[in-house]
Description:
single chain; 166 residues; alpha+beta; Nuclear Transport Factor 2, Chain: A; 2 domains; five-stranded antiparallel beta sheet; 31% strand
Amino acid sequence: MPMRSTIILAAIATMPLAACGHNSSDDPPRRGQGSLFGLAMPSLEMPEVNVTRILTEGGGGEDLSRTTTAQASEAERAAIALAVKGAFPQDWTVRVLGLKTGLSPSGQLMACGIANATKPGGDSGWNGIFRTETTRRTGETRLRQIAGGGTDRLVAYSHCQALGLG
Length: 166
């Protein structure tokens, strides 16, 4: 149905509603009320939402405090690459690119980067962002987030930004 017909039909359908409860005075609606075709409507107030705070809080009590500059050793870089590779089928080729690292206030080596993965034979690839955490004392590296797109990628990127690694 063409747009003009839709608008005309909507206007015709709402005319009887506009007549119901129409206030003939030119007074503005009372505070807390709006007006739709002359009908008093309650005001809908949305709570204030801080999207940046929500995206950078982390999940499960994670500490996303800003990191200080710290370089990863070759062994730590290899452990990070291995943790990222573990998120994919064993026969996929995974490359870690653009790795940024920093030391958290608790002494953890935090890393963010981009990963590319391809199926055997080079068929359709995947690329996305990841975030890892390495306990330098034990050498244990955990993949905290990996995301290829959509909201998950935005959240992972926001977490990396909060860490100062974005």
